[in-house]
């Protein structure tokens, strides 16, 4: 059998572009389209093609493209489920491992992590520990990019947002230091010990200034100091958190600062969370220390405030984390928060807003759980709870793009967690809905505050006492309130001493002494007199207090 082979070719140019037309040049292709549309044959050809195209369109509309051909196939959910996964893990390279105390993202596309390690347990008996902290490449969890070697352990470490090579740190001995990673692993500037803090520096934040060289720091000794990197020997300004006159302020009486907050859009304002659970809103423009700490919210939490941050889109609303709850406050309402979470079984250790999705905030717990809350979705419980590790989570820091969160734990390990898109990307109406919700809750709280003030005023008007005490909004400073409180204290002391005497009599095996409460109560006027008239009862004293 014999085969014959022939070669043939076809020159096809219909529907294509001429050789002299560059497809990547948008302007050139537009000119060619306009030229073709002006041709007389263009309309005749299009009318001929419309008939075939119309037939195809009608046929396509007659077919149900959404028909389910297979009944056993699970349908794809229309709404993305909330999820989180661990991307990388960064370990403390020293032994024994030390807790992670602070995390900071670098400003250059946030490709680096500055992580500080320090053991802050008071009088803890531990083996000799290293003082080093690390800067990691996000994509390389095997070896740190730079190992910082200070003389004392670093408690907090913060990148300068205008210069990715400069960092500020607060050390456990109360000094602050400046680092330039281009010059090595040693600090380039260090504050003088005499002009530094007494206790460890818990917070360091850069100030939005023209020079980019100013920052301020706080400590548990109750001081806030402002610094300039060009002259780190002396602080430019010092504020003592003591509500006394300037000449009477003492560090020993100051409120320990547990957290600092600074918003770059409000350069003269700052906020402080204290170890006693108080929130202080400060203003650097004040002439005296009292004017700089004019606004305060006492008893915001039952213990130290672990986190304090303003909402990125609504600066007058801020988040606080402390004890077992997280709360959202408004500057217009000082007596109570407007939104709060339920009490958790494990204590909360840190919290932060999402930089991209305005209604989302994060909290970490002592049992190693990360909670993601979306206020527009639900408020009774977290939208997502993830058990990251078995150890206590100590701090968190969210990436500016919202998808990544860095979490540090008690064992010196840092976890990089990636969230799903529905927890990191805002939709069209998110800001409008969140605005209406925050305004509604603020109005509700204002109504409750006005009602409480009205009830307190009516109660004071019913109580006997001078008229000026009724007119005074703070009746705790009045004489009647002080006297009733003293009576309550004396009554409590009498009950306490009586209980002690009874217990001592039981231990000695003798008869119990007669009740001595009557004598004490007669002195305080808290029992019935001879005429049977009761002057002041324990219940009244308690209510007055």
UniProtKB/TrEMBL annotation:
Gene Ontology terms describing biological process: cilium movement; outer dynein arm assembly
Membrane-crossing segments per the record: none
Keyword annotations: Cell projection, Cilium, Cytoplasm, Cytoskeleton, Dynein, Microtubule, Motor protein, Repeat, WD repeat
Residue stretches of biased makeup (Low complexity): 534-545
Residue ranges with Basic and acidic residues bias: 478-487, 500-511
Keyword hit for Cytoplasm: yes
InterPro entries, per the entry: Dynein_IC, WD40/YVTN_repeat-like_dom_sf, WD40_repeat_dom_sf, WD40_rpt
Annotated PROSITE patterns: WD_REPEATS_2
Annotated stretches, region: Disordered: 454-545
WD repeats: 341-383
Superkingdom as given in the UniProt entry: Eukaryota
GO molecular function, one term: dynein light chain binding
Major site of localization recorded for this protein: cytoplasm
GO cellular component terms, A-Z: microtubule; outer dynein arm
Ranges of biased composition (kind: Acidic residues): 512-531
Subcellular location: Cytoplasm, Cytoskeleton, Cilium axoneme
Family (UniProt): Belongs to the dynein intermediate chain family.
Protein name, entry field: Dynein intermediate chain 3, ciliary
Organism: Diabrotica balteata
Species classification: Eukaryota, Metazoa, Ecdysozoa, Arthropoda, Hexapoda
């Amino acid at each position: 059998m014999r085969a014959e082979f022939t070669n043939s070719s076809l020159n096809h140019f219909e529907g294509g572009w001429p050789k002299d037309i560059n497809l990547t040049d948008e302007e050139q292709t537009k000119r060619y389209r306009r030229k073709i549309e002006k041709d007389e044959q263009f309309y005749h050809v299009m009318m001929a093609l419309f008939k075939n195209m119309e037939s195809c369109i009608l046929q396509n509309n007659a077919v149900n493209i959404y028909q389910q051909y297979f009944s056993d196939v699970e349908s794809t959910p229309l709404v993305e489920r909330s999820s989180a996964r661990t991307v990388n893990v960064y370990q403390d390279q020293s032994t024994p491992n030390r807790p992670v105390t602070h995390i900071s993202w670098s400003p250059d596309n946030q490709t680096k992590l500055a992580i500080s390690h320090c053991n802050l347990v008071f009088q803890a008996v531990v083996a000799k520990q290293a003082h080093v902290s690390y800067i990691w490449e996000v994509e390389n969890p095997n070896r740190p990019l730079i190992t910082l070697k200070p003389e004392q352990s670093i408690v907090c470490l913060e990148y300068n947002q205008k210069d990715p090579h400069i960092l500020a740190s607060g050390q456990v001995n109360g000094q602050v230091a400046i680092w330039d990673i281009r010059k090595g692993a040693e600090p380039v500037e260090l504050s003088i010990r005499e002009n530094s803090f007494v206790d460890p520096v818990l917070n360091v934040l850069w100030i939005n200034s023209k020079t980019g060289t100013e920052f301020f720091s706080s400590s548990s000794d109750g001081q806030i100091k402002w610094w300039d990197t060009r002259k780190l020997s002396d602080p430019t300004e010092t504020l003592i958190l003591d509500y006394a006159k300037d000449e009477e302020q003492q560090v020993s009486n100051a409120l320990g600062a547990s957290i600092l907050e600074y918003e770059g859009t409000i350069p003269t304002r700052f906020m402080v969370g204290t170890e006693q659970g108080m929130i202080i809103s400060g203003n650097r423009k004040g002439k005296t220390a009292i004017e700089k700490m004019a606004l305060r919210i006492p008893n915001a939490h039952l213990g130290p405030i672990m986190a304090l941050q303003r909402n990125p889109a609504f600066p007058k609303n801020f988040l606080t984390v402390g004890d077992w709850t997280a709360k959202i406050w408004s500057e217009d309402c000082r007596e109570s928060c407007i939104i709060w979470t339920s009490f958790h079984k494990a204590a909360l250790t840190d919290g932060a807003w999402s930089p991209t999705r305005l209604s989302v905030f994060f909290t970490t717990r002592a049992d190693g759980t990360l909670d993601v809350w979306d206020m527009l979705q639900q408020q009774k419980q977290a939208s997502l709870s993830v058990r990251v590790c078995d150890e206590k989570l100590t701090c968190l820091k969210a990436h500016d793009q919202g998808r990544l969160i860095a979490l540090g734990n008690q064992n010196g390990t840092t976890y990089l967690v990636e969230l799903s898109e529905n927890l990191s990307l805002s939709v069209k109406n998110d800001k409008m809905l969140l605005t209406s919700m925050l305004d509604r809750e603020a109005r509700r709280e204002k109504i409750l505050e006005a009602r409480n003030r009205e009830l307190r005023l009516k109660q004071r008007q019913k109580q006997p006492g001078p008229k000026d005490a009724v007119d005074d909004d703070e009746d705790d400073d009045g004489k009647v309130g002080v006297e009733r409180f003293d009576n309550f204290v004396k009554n409590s002391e009498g009950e306490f001493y009586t209980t002690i005497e009874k217990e001592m009599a039981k231990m000695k095996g003798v008869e119990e002494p007669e009740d001595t409460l009557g004598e004490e109560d007669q002195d305080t006027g808290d029992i019935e007199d001879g005429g049977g008239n009761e002057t002041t009862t324990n219940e009244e004293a308690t209510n007055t207090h």
